[in-house]
Amino acid sequence: MNAEINVAVNDDEMIRCSEPQRQLERAIAIMHRLRAPGGCPWDAEQTHESLIANLIEECYECIDAIRSKDAVHLREELGDVLLQVLFHAELAQERPEEGFSVYDVARELCEKLVRRHPHVFGEAIAKDADEVLTRWDQIKRQERHTEHQPYLHDCGKGLPELIRAYKLTAKAAKVGFDWERHEQVVEKIREELDEVQGTMTLPDNDPRVTEELGDLLFTVVNLCRHRCVNPEDALRGANNKFVRRFHTMQQLLEDESITLQQADAEQFDQMWRAVKVREQASQESPDEG
After folding, report:
1. Domain residues for 191?
2. Maximum distance among all alpha carbons in the chain?
3. What is this structure's pTM?
4. Which helix (H) or strand (E) holds 277?
5. Handedness of CA 99, 105, 110, 115 (dihedral sign)
6. 55 and 73 share a domain?
7. Same domain, 93 and 65
8. Among 195, 4, 21, which Cα is nearest to 90's?
9. Each residue of 162-176: pLDDT tens digit?
C-alpha cells in the first residue's frame, strides 16, 4: 500500500523552520523539492544505481565518526545516511513499478521490529541476547520462506567479504561446525600457509594462487572470531599502525635530507626498525606527570 507524499511544507518553511518536531517532515519535503521540476539538476539526474557509491561512502563516514567518539560529527554523518534513505524512497515514490514512499519504509520497519521482538510485544521469553538473535534469525527465515533453504543461504549477502566470512563462520559455529580450541585454528593457518607456499612457483594469474590466499584469509578470520576479535577492527588497527609508522619513517628520512623517492631498500629497512624501536621505548617509558 503506497502512501503518497503530502508536501505540507512550503519553501519558506523549508528554509527557516526551526521546530524540532517538524524537522523530519522538513527533510522529506526538501528532498521532494530537489527532485521536482525547477529543483536541482544534479538531484534530478540520480538513480538508485548512481547513488550506491554515495550510500557506501556515507555509511563508512558514519562508522568513522562513531569510532572517533565525536558526537557532533556523528550527528552530521547520521544526517547524511538519513539523506540516502530519503533519496531512495523519493526515487521509489516516483516510479509506478516500485511505488513506495518513505512512510511505507517506516511502516515496514515498525512492523518488522514488532514481529521480531515477540519477547517484548508478545508472550515469548528471551533469557539472553543470544536467544534473541537465534529467534530473530528463525523469524527472518520464516518470513522469507527460506526455512527449507540451505542453512547458510543468503548469510552475509552483499557485505564486504571480510565481514561476510566472519558471519558465515559464526553461523556455522551455532550448529557445532567449529574447532574446539584456538590452537586448532592456528594449526589450520599453518596448513593453509604451507599451501600458499606451494603456489610460489605459479604465475600470478593462476587461479590456485587466489584460491589458496583466500583460504588463508578465511582461516585467519576464523581465528579472529575464536578470540572474540572483530577482523575489521583488527585490520583497521594494523592499517592505522602502518600509516603512523610510515609517516614517522618519512620524517626520519627527511631529517637526513632523504626523500621517499631517493631512499633505497636498506635505508627503508633501517628507518623502519628505528621507528619500531622508538615506539617500543615510548610504550615502556612511565608517564611523566
Report:
1. 161-229
2. 73
3. 0.68
4. helix 265-284
5. positive
6. yes
7. yes
8. 4
9. 999 999 999 999 899
Q: Are residues 199 and 248 in the same domain?
A: no
CATH number of the domain bearing residue 18: 1.10.287.1080
Nearest-angstrom CA–CA distance, 35 and 43: 6
Query: Contact 14/30 with Cβ under 8 angstroms?
Result: yes
Question: Based on the domain organization, do 237 and 225 belong to the same domain?
Answer: no
Question: Which residues have C-beta within 8 Å of that of residue 113, sequence separation ≥ 6?
Answer: none
Residues 91 and 15 in one domain: yes
Rounded CA-CA distance 50/8 in Å is 29
Q: For residue 170, count other CB atoms closer than 10 A to its CB.
A: 15
Span 7-65, pLDDT tens digits: 578 888 898 888 998 999 999 999 999 999 999 999 999 999 999 999 999 999 999 99
Residue 48 φ then ψ, to 5°: -55, -45
Residue 141 lies in a domain: no
- 177 and 221 inside one domain: yes
Cβ contacts of residue 142 below 8 Å, gap of 6+?
none
3-state helix, strand, coil in the chain (%, to 5): 65, 0, 35
- Per-position b or e across 228-237, b if 16+ CB within 10 A of its CB: eeebeebeee
Q: How far apart are CA 235 and CA 165, in angstroms?
A: 14
Q: How many domains does the chain have?
A: 3
**pLDDT at residue 145, rounded to an integer:** 83
Cell of 255: 631529517
